[in-house]
Amino acid sequence: MDKPKTILVIEDQDDLRLLIRLTLKQLGRVSAAPDVRQAMALVAADCPDLVVLDVWLGNDLSGLDICRSLKRDPATSAVKVLLLSACGQQSDVEAGLAAGADRYVVKPFSPEVLVGTARELLVG
Amino acid sequence: MPATPKKSEEVRRLQVLKNLNLLDTPPEERFDRITRLASRLFDAPIVLIALMDAKRQWFKSRIGIELTEVERSLSFCDHTIRQDEVFVVEDARLDPRFADNPFVTGEPGVRFYAGYPLETPEGCRVGSLCVIDRAPRRFDEVQRGLMRDVAQIAANEVAHVELNWALQRQRDSEAGMRALLEHIPEGVLMLDVAGTVLWVNPAAERLFLRKAAKLVGRSGHDLLAEDPDKLRAQPGLINLTPYESIGRRGDDSLFPLEFTVNRLLLSGEKRMVAIVRDISQRRANDERNRATDARRRRYFATATHELRTPMASVLGFSELLLKRDFDIATGRELVEIIHRQASRLVDLINQLLDLARIEAGGKDELDFRALAVADLVDQTLAGLSGLGEAHRISVELAPELPALSGDVQKLQQALTNIVSNSIKYSKPDTPITVGAFLAAPGAQPAVGIRVRDAGIGMTPEQQAQIFDAFYRADKGSSVQGSGLGMTIFKEIIDLHGGTVEIRSAPGTGTEITMVLPAIGPFHG
Questions:
Q1: Which of B124, B89, B96, B127 has the alpha carbon at shortest distance from B110?
Q2: Which of B136, B160, B383, B399 is 20 to 30 Å from B153 at the Cα level?
Q3: What is the pLDDT of residues B307-326, one digit of tens each?
Q4: The pTM is what?
Q5: pLDDT tens digits along B325-381
Q6: Which stretch of B178-192, B225-239, B261-275, B449-463 has the lowest confidence by average pLDDT?
Q7: Half-sphere exposure of residue B9, counting CA atoms within 13 Å on the CB side?
Q8: Lowest mean pLDDT among A35-39, B49-53, B383-387
Q9: DSSP bridge partners of B101
Q10: Which residues on B lie below 8 Å from A56 (Cβ)?
Q11: Closest CA to B498 of B509, B510, B512, B485
């Protein structure tokens, strides 16, 4: 049996953070942070296999910025990034993928679909 | 008898005759003196200067006859105008063409007729000069020669008339063109082929803030803040397609303009005519429309985002509940989240609709009535009951406040949004004060309503954005809100002609004051 996968959820909305944690916990160890500062501390402590990232993080840095910096840093560039956003226009999706995200899932989402997408990223 | 003239020639002849503007005009001495002369010269009792209209013969000058016109088919002159020579009928009674003519058999008893056509310079025979006698006569070559001469004098008078009219028409049309060029709002410049300005209209002077004298002789390129080579390289510039550029005024200021250039040949000289329009206004409108469009798109994108977020909780948690097993306590917790987020969704939709209604309807949507400030405050706080129970809310109303003119429901909504924010963003058991006071006493009467809390407060940056739709100063916090409350509040106060002032500092609290126009003492 492989070492359990680690997933980090960065989502500023409490309810959604809980939803994503509950949804993904079947795939591995899920930690969650409501903002960039806490998230970066978690990344530094234990580099996750997958980051599930909200695009609009309140008054914080944009999820796109975090995605870019994760992919730029050699220490974290292998981390898979799944962007999650309520901005669902074609241009939003393109901007997300251009920032280096591996997948872009639009809110509202089906937990089944989110699990499927996350599993693909963890296996692939 | 000579052939009947072709129809097209007759049409042209009638047009020339009409343009003379002689038909049905009063007698004129310059024609009458010719008929008098002819009467003496030929010792004839009847002399006519006749013009041949389509269906009638009309007399511009007549001697010895009362009629002013006769039917064309009965006229002798209709024969005359088709002749190249003097037309003579020595005895009409013996002439089969005229023997049964009513003017021969009856009054005035024509027996002798001699006539010669009146021809205009363009060769149209518009009428004739004729002499008539009641007795048969001979008409010798000398008389025929005289007849031609006198008719020629009459024809000259007719031509003179035509010349005058032509000159007048020319003057009229020139005056018309000048007036047109002076009054059209577009600048009109005439240039030679090298691009030197030759003439400008007053609108061009106004556009470029230069007198005509300062424009004439200058190169057209001087009037544009655009590289002349680039302009010359424009393909198809000289046609009627508008070209946008930047104009340079006499004071060196610049303005956006649009012009069309067209070539023309004027008295054999090649010229260019430029028509110039100031498009500042159009540009400003375009800019405003673009900004409005961008704002609308942003608003739509944000509204969609804000609707999808609670929807994500509703959809996600309900799917989890349907597909996975949870213990009763957790299940209940998740249903509570669904309920909370669904309620948020409903609030959001209601607020969106409210804002849309207020923005679309404007002042017309409001039901203006006189209302007492005390009632407004009381009803607002009563409506909030439950929400503010944990806070110490006090009311401080100045005595004898004048009445407001406003929409009770909308003002209550506005005040509710403010007070509920104070409740949401301050700790339980901290004070909230709702006060009202007479604003600007002495001047236009106004009432100020002030809500003060000791809550978390806002930074100047947060204050600057507080009225933007969907803006939430504290997004990540657990405090529920659509981000539309303050936007709706501001819209309502604006529609009432009121003003809003915010004083706030992080950690200290927030004080929001709205000042509304009053209508005098309330007697309701």
A1: B89
A2: B136
A3: 998 999 999 999 999 999 99
A4: 0.57
A5: 999 999 999 999 999 999 989 988 988 888 888 888 878 878 889 999 999 999 998
A6: B225-239
A7: 11
A8: B383-387
A9: none
A10: 305
A11: B512
Cβ distance of A112 and B323 shorter than 8 Å: yes
The encoded tokens of residue B337 equal 């989240």
Residue of A18, A19, A110 to mutate, testing the B interface (most B Cβ within 10 Å of its Cβ): A19
Tell which wins on pLDDT, B239 or B231. B231
| Both tokens assigned to A25 | 């916990």
ipTM value, please give it. 0.90
Check CB contact of B267 with chain A, cutoff 8 Å: no
Enter the tokens of residue B264: 């023309």
Rounded CA-CA distance B363/B281 in Å is: 28
Per-residue confidence (pLDDT) for residue B474, from 0 to 100: 63
DSSP string, A60-109: S--HHHHHHHHHHSTTTTTSEEEEEES--SHHHHHHHHHTT-SEEEESS-
| Nearby residues of B140 by Cβ (< 8 Å), 6 or more positions away | none
Tell me the torsion sign for CA atoms B251, B257, B263, B264.
negative
User: Distance, in angstroms, between B315 CA and closest chain A CA?
Assistant: 7
CA distance A78 to chain B (A): 29
CA–CA distance, B365 with B407 (Å, rounded to integer)? 9
Nearest residue in B to A24, CA atom: B320
Say whether A15 and B308 touch across the interface (CB within 8 A): no
Q: Is A19 in contact with B311 (Cβ distance < 8 A)? A: no
Task: Select from B309, B319, B320 the Cβ nearest to the Cβ of A86.
Answer: B309
Which residue from A15, A22, A108 is facing B308, i.e. has the nearest CB? A108
Which residues of A make CB contacts under 8 Å with B? Answer: 12-16, 18-19, 22-23, 34-35, 56-60, 85-89, 106-112
DSSP-derived 3-state class of residue B233: coil
C-alpha angle with apex B376: B371 to B382, nearest 5 degrees? 145
CB-closest option in A19, A35, A58 to B316: A19
pLDDT digit string, tens, across residues A33-61? 988 888 888 888 888 999 999 988 766 67
B199: enclosing H helix or E strand: strand B197-200
A 10 A CB-CB count for B140 gives 9
pLDDT band of B462, cuts 50, 70, 90: confident
